[in-house]
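Project standup — Tuesday

K.O.: blocked on the structure for the chain from last sprint. Re-posting the sequence here as requested.
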Amino acid sequence: MCSWGIVTDELLADPVEAIHIAAEWGLKTIELRGIGKGRRIPDIEPDEVNRIKEALKETGLTVSALSPGTWKCSWHEPEAEQQADRFRRTLELAEQLDVKRIITFSVRRDSKDDKAIYDQIRDTLGSMSTDAAARGMTLCIENEKNWWADTETAIKRLLTDLHDAGLRLNWDAANYVDAGGHDALTTWKNLRAFIANIHLKDVVVVGQMHRWCRLGEGQVGWTELLPAMLASDPVTMSIETHCPPLLENSLINRNWLRQFEASD
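H.V.: unblocked you, prediction finished:
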């Protein structure tokens, strides 16, 4: 039977409350990202970390990944100077919570980028990957529209260059479709050797506009993609609903996934 997970802030802002709900729904893992009061991992107090540990112990759930939002900015923005420190603190938190995966973005594309920018981004993400690997962790880039890992070509280039450094992919099929991708199933097959984590959401794209939607109601093609993914090597798959009302739609997404459990 497949073990699904969920990103806690797709349920509630309070990760402890979200952990208990996830357990009630029969989910097995949680991903930590937003933690309430406008904060995101790793901006968390020690007592909050202890509450999360206790909730995990009570429910038997584990943390599949930490998502600090590193490089959810361009190379040229003031926030770029903060990324190294945010990543360092995320690694320290991952050790406290015994988490083996960190999700990062691949630097947002910017009109100020020049021809040399790719090499700088590659080297920075490579250094982050080796730092994570030195602690027994895997760094995963999340593919997203207008980032340096958005199209299949861009994703494959970065991951091929940094495979030996340990960089892997957090595959988000809805983000791939939003970035203009077609036939997510074929692209997943082409990229699956790189994939170490998966986000589950859906999307409808019209022109340059997109609308996140519940699983099976968009253009990803989950009814074909999910069985193929489930039949391959097991990879953590986390619900990332993205369409309000979050709690209600997350439950609908969780129940929609039940149809794939019997054949897993």
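K.O.: great, moving the ticket to review. The chain is about 40% helix and 20% strand. The two ends are 5 Å apart (CA to CA).
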